[in-house]
Write a structure and sequence with these properties.
heterodimer, A: alpha/beta, globular, B: about 475 residues, alpha+beta, Arc Repressor Mutant, subunit A, three-stranded antiparallel beta sheet
Chain lengths: ~425, ~475
């Protein structure tokens, strides 16, 4: 392949990158020469991939994630690996072993998380597009907080092969960009079937965004504007929905009663899966080496205690507990029932409306250090996790500001109707810019 | 009667003989290669790698399920069994838990009380093999251990029996039958080292159950069970309690040893593997055409070749042996089947075991020729054994192998039938060399004839026809009666 080369030496004031590639070669293709940043939990052959964890410091994958192969085939220049909450566990990118990322809109605030590095790299003008991953809102939250666009695709639409798993049944890799068009273009590159991911579907994405939403039915769930949601945020989002109506959409009030249990179901499921996924980090094969003079279980214990951050250890312990003999039925099994209820609620609503709209996050970006207790941080995920439990697509598009900080409008769609949520976001974006 | 009754159930892990591993494309043919040469991101459990189910391994497992009369479930599912061990690279094993591939079924064996006995099966499930640790020095004081992931991801089926066996002998018969069935199905190669591993649950009626793990040979199963029965019975006899525990089998000493309690307290925290979809393969069952299985072949050998039940059982007990027998008799089934059944089942197997050889090393055409020599009365049975031994020994060496006829000529083993002059001379010589034997004969001691016959046989290296020799010797002795 004919090689071109670019130099990438950004002024990374926001600590968006964990690794930057100074000289990047790229080939021809749809994204030829476009600088794309990749979240550090996506495997890149020959480039250190740490998930922002000390336990993977020095790990250089011997293979590329499927999406990275696709990016390279499209001519994109992969310029670096972005900061994140360790293993994706967080809503602020403060849980990185390598320091927090700052919000380019206000450096005293967090960029959101866990794909905060990718969002800040875009918002800070260092790259045009980036890949994030979304397990419970990790693309949409930082997109909303940093004033960019981010799509969590339908579960199975983008191959997870090479994504270092946090919670397999919930997460998806997705595109982030300055505009809906960029997000749509990147989605076109990364979506499609991959036989190496058994949960992948053969639904390539070949769509070009269209701004026509006449006759579109938009569901407005009461829960997205109720308790816990900052009224100022609700007001901005409501007026954005008003713009959709001006464009010919009609709104229908609706309700997602299962949301009462969504957060609990989400945290039980993701911690259970995480406790198993992260068990392999033991210092035997990669990461900081285990002390071979100790017995293996002592060596494991030390490597893991030193290598994982507080939040990761907390979630491993929660998940280990919830899966333990005698508790499985009480927690994991119940969480799956709640998850089915969320799916059923969405299916019911989508039999009457085309998309559902609401705020992405209940507030604007937090101040650094503001969410110091884990529970209040978990609560801020309430508007994003239902989408992951149901496996449906959702996009966050900037829709105004409160106190100078960006707000995200979240559009949720039927499974495999990623095109439709893109169109609605595009229509809104075209209307306001 | 039921007092002190032994109760045995087995969990048998068999490697399926597929070309590639259960969840990736790596080759399963690793035994002759260096460590960690048959590995990829998937079977190394590298971060981000995902399992993709090998269709062939499910087909193989379903063949087994159908052959063992199991019910394949409408939906089955893979689960993660979570535990830390350095040979387990993901720190979980992908296996099946509450939704196995198949349930029920049975294996028929010849029971201790005579007649066919059904050993019921609980379930069959599919899982991946972990890697292997190689300890430098011994496990307690070794400097370090090395880990080899070549074996990681090899497809296994676990066949769990109900506690229906009543003796180590029945357990051995169960295993033999299972092994034969798997071989007949072409899904298993028992010759491969470590291809079969057994955990045994054993108790004495009324006492706690003990699980013996880590038995990796057929002989080991009988040894471990016999040891455990003795141990448990002697505990009971002394009025002590049998603890419910897990014990490890120590191959070298043939004994079992209690595992440390730390290892027993595993909580495997099973949950469904989120990277694999549930399996719906019940509809495949009807499409599976089973080959002839051991029981059917045994009955056919009895009918077609006139084999005795015992010979038929032995010959069909191993696929290779049954194939070998049919190859030997193929040129002349009518003339050779009875003779070959006796020779192969009663003589050849023993000679192979003595040399630690397998049937694969034996030339069927050569055995056919040997059978013909015997049938045409060219050599005696005694010489036949000599020829067979030479044939086998030559197989062990790199030198070219002779045909049975050539061996007969070279060793001058042709029967002396008709050559009475030669025999008469040998008899005369023996009598004159052993005057005391002649004396004994004259005193009416019948053992003297046998002694002299032995002497002549020795001289003629067994090629004398026993009937003819007896006649000449008796005559010669009669002539010397005073």
């Amino acid at each position: 392949m004919a090689g071109y080369e670019i130099c990438f030496e950004p002024d990374d004031r926001y600590n968006a990158f964990l690794t930057t590639c100074k000289k990047v070669t790229y080939g021809p293709g749809k994204l030829t020469g476009v600088a794309v940043a990749v979240k550090d939990n996506i495997s890149t052959k020959g480039i250190e991939t740490t998930c922002a964890s000390k336990i993977l410091k020095g790990y250089i994958p011997p293979y590329n994630a499927h999406v990275v192969e696709l990016l390279m085939q499209s001519g994109a220049a992969i310029v670096g690996k972005t900061n994140m909450d360790e293993f994706g566990m967080g809503t602020t990118t403060e849980n990185s072993a390598f320091g927090p990322t700052l919000n380019p809109c206000d450096t005293s605030r967090v960029p959101g998380g866990s794909s905060g590095g990718s969002a800040a790299a875009i918002a800070g003008g260092m790259v045009r597009m980036a890949l994030g991953t979304d397990t419970g809102g990790s693309i949409r939250c930082p997109a909303a907080f940093c004033g960019i666009v981010g799509l969590k695709p339908t579960y199975g639409r983008v191959s997870r092969y090479g994504l270092i798993a946090y919670a397999n049944s919930l997460e998806q890799i997705g595109p982030m960009g300055r505009t809906v068009t960029d997000v749509s273009t990147l989605m076109g590159v990364i979506a499609g079937y991959d036989r190496r991911d058994s949960t992948s579907y053969n639904k390539p994405y070949t769509h070009t965004p269209r701004a026509d939403i006449k006759g579109l039915k938009v569901g407005i769930p009461g829960e997205y504007f109720g308790a816990g949601v900052d009224p100022k945020v609700a007001t901005v989002v409501n007026s954005a929905i008003g713009r959709l109506e001006e464009l010919g959409a009609t709104t229908v009030p609706c309700s997602i009663p299962s949301m009462e249990y969504a957060l609990a179901a989400y945290y039980v499921t993701c911690t259970c899966e995480a406790s198993s996924n992260l068990a392999r980090f033991d210092g035997v094969r990669y990461g900081p080496a285990a002390d071979t003079k100790k017995s293996w279980h002592d060596a494991y214990r030390e490597v893991r205690r030193a290598g994982f951050g507080t939040e990761v250890r907390r979630r491993i312990m929660l998940g280990t507990f919830a899966l333990s003999s005698g508790y499985y039925g009480k927690y994991y099994a119940k969480a799956q029932v709640a998850r089915e209820n969320v799916k059923r609620d969405f299916a019911r609503i989508f039999s009457e409306v085309d998309v559902i709209a609401g705020p992405t996050m209940p507030t604007v970006a937090f101040k650094l250090g503001e969410k110091s207790d884990p529970l209040s941080m978990y609560l801020s995920d309430i508007l994003t996790v239902p989408v992951n439990l149901a496996g449906i697509p959702a996009i966050s598009v900037p829709c105004g500001k409160v106190e100078g900080m960006p707000i995200g409008l979240q559009i949720m769609g039927r499974p495999f109707e990623d095109e439709r949520v893109i169109d609605v976001a595009y229509a809104y974006e075209q209307e306001v810019t | 009667m039921t007092e002190n009754q032994v109760i045995i159930g087995l969990e048998v892990h068999c490697q399926l003989d597929t070309k590639s591993k259960l969840f990736c494309g790596c080759s399963t043919d690793y035994r002759s290669d260096g460590p960690n040469t048959h590995v990829c991101p998937v079977c190394l459990g590298l971060p981000g790698a995902m399992p993709v189910l090998n269709k062939r391994s499910i087909e193989y497992a379903m063949r087994v399920a159908k052959a063992l009369n199991c019910t394949v479930l409408h939906e089955s599912e893979f689960s993660r069994k979570n535990y830390f061990y350095p040979d387990l690279d993901k720190a979980y094993q992908i296996t099946q838990y509450d939704k196995p591939l198949a349930e029920g079924g049975y294996i028929e064996i010849e029971g201790d009380e005579g007649g066919e006995k059904r050993i019921r099966l609980t379930r069959i499930h599919v899982e991946e093999d972990p890697g292997r640790l190689v300890h430098m020095g011994n496990t307690e004081r070794g400097k370090y251990s090395l880990v080899d992931y070549n074996r990681a991801g090899i497809p296994l089926i676990e066949i769990v029996s109900e506690p229906d066996m009543r003796s180590p002998k029945e357990a051995r018969k169960f295993l033999n039958k299972l092994r034969a069935t798997l071989e007949y199905l072409s899904v298993f190669d028992s010759e491969k080292e470590g291809s079969l591993r057994v955990d045994a649950n054993i108790s004495i009626r009324g006492s706690e159950r003990v699980e013996v793990k880590n038995i990796s040979s057929y002989k080991g199963v009988e040894k471990a069970l016999t040891f455990e029965i003795t141990r448990q019975k002697s505990l009971i006899r002394r009025g002590q309690k049998v603890d419910r525990e897990t014990r490890h089998f120590l191959e070298a000493s043939g004994s079992t040893q209690s595992s440390r309690s730390k290892e027993q307290e595993h909580d495997y925290r099973y949950f469904p593997e989120p990277d694999l979809r549930p399996l719906h393969v019940q509809s495949w069952v009807d499409g599976i055409v089973l080959p002839e299985l051991p029981d059917a072949r045994r009955e056919r050998f009895i009918v077609q070749y006139g084999c005795s039940l015992n010979h038929a059982r032995t010959l069909t007990g191993e696929l290779r042996l049954a194939n070998f027998y049919e190859k030997v008799v193929a040129p002349d089934p009518k003339g050779l089947s009875a003779l070959a059944a006796t020779w192969i089942a009663d003589t050849l197997i023993g000679e192979l075991n003595y040399r630690d050889m397998t049937i694969d090393a034996v030339d069927a055409a050569g055995v056919t020729e040997l059978m013909n020599l015997l049938r045409q009365d060219t050599i005696t049975d005694k010489s036949g054994i000599d020829v067979l031994r030479v044939m086998l020994d030559q197989r062990l060496n790199p030198q070219p192998c002779e045909t049975p006829a050539a061996i007969v000529v070279r060793l001058n083993l042709a029967k002396t039938a008709g050559d009475t002059g030669f025999l008469t001379a040998a008899v005369e010589e023996a009598i004159s060399q052993h005057p005391t034997a002649l004396e004994d004969y004259r005193n009416g001691k019948s053992g003297a004839i046998n002694f002299l016959m032995g002497q002549v046989m020795k001289k003629t290296r067994g090629k004398a026809d026993p009937g003819e020799l007896n006649r000449i010797l008796t005559e010669a002795l009669k002539n010397r009666e005073v």
